[in-house]
Amino acid sequence: MAPPRKSDPAGEVFGDVVADHVRRVEQRIPRALADEDDAVHRLRTAVRRLRTVLAVYRPAFERDQVKDLRRRLAELGDVLGEARDLEVRRADVESVGGAASVPRQARERIVEDLDRQHAAAHARFVEYAGSPTMAVTTAELIRWVQEPPLGKAADRKAATVARKRLRKAVRRAERAAAELDPAALAEATVEDVDTSENLEDLLARAHEVRKAGRRVSQATRAVTRSPTRVLGSSAKDLGAAGKTIQSTLGDHRDAMLLAALAREHGDRAEAAGEDRGPYDRLARAAVRRARSALEAVPEALERLLSTTP
Hints:
Blueprint: H1 10-33, H2 39-56, H3 63-99, H4 104-129, H5 132-146, H6 158-178, H7 182-186, H8 197-223, H9 233-271, H10 277-293, H11 297-306
Helix pairs in contact: 1-2, 1-5, 1-6, 2-3, 2-8, 3-4, 3-5, 3-9, 6-8, 8-9, 9-10, 9-11
């Protein structure tokens, strides 16, 4: 393993971080265009990690140019998100529905609908990837690799900048966590999924905590691995806590969205004079999975807020 780059200039280290992330984005685009298994997810993750690096370590770069590139990447991420979210729903229908013994006919009906939507969403991504907008984004990414626009903190020690910015990311997570009541979130019922305004608010607050945890996790990952390692074990512990928050609240959100989808198909079945029972069974199973996902959140939050990078 290469030695830490603690004393190297932040502009140099974070310029290398950006270049590494850009390469990952470029490498994953062809497979995502071909709609290979998990390729859209991998590309979306690479785009998000690059946006996180730009946001958290922004002082190493020129502010307005960071803002512009993050906006472009957010647009690409939104296009990818349509297809990826449908992939998650499809996988969850099979895993949760199968475990709950939901009749195959009901599962297949939902999956067929999701497959149609996914095909359309992927086609929109392919169209976007060939657009003039994407061409400009690609050119900008290349420019950032060749000559990153450095900012006011570019000459400071990379480790100093990394610690300061990670602590800010933790404070962001702390503010988000203060607005969330995990116990109230865990009390949601199947009926709450499509009738409770309070649940909608709770889900929005949980999503903010999740995003804050993801930011900490991804920003930490960028500075604890070679060839851009500037921080050590305490930062890795911080990143692990952030990852747990991201994963568990992500699983919770996906399960609740599955419950809402199942309820929607149940309503359609009932309107057509069919049995809605299989869809309600899937919704109940999804809510149970959502509750289970929340069990690890309090401990992960405590670890996150008590760890100093």
